[in-house]
Amino acid sequence: MAVETVAAAEGDAQKKNRIQVSNTKKPLFFYVNLAKRYIQQHNEVELSALGMAITTVVTIAEILKNNGLAIEKKVMTSTVGMKDENKGRVVQKAKIEIVLGKSEKFDLLMNAANVPPEGASKDEE
């Protein structure tokens, strides 16, 4: 079952720093790398998911926090009513939103990750 959220249905405009995570569309590290880019551009990122994708969002947040790239600012949980296409009725889905901010070491760690290891040269064959 695909899990997607639609920001327009929530009544708020699509935020530039929000990532709506699905556990069927992209691999985990696609979202980790996208979150890093959003933190770099906006100083924070909001990760959002419904249902079974919640574990993926928590994993992404923990990877970023454990690597020293982000700090947890806010965690919100709720339930949202969604129309089940198969059964034709409204079902309640769990929802999570995690806001992560840029850590003090973010720029240092990102720059260190982009530096080639010492001793490696371009013309090695």
Automatic annotation (TrEMBL):
GO terms for cellular component: nucleus. Pfam families: Alba. It comes from the Eukaryota. It comes from Theobroma cacao. The lineage of its organism: Eukaryota, Viridiplantae, Streptophyta, Embryophyta, Tracheophyta. PANTHER family: ALBA DNA_RNA-BINDING PROTEIN, DNA/RNA-BINDING PROTEIN ALBA 3. One of its GO terms (molecular function) is RNA binding. This is Alba DNA/RNA-binding protein. Residues 17-79 form the DNA/RNA-binding protein Alba-like domain. InterPro entries: Alba-like_dom_sf, DNA/RNA-bd_Alba-like, UCP030333_Alba.
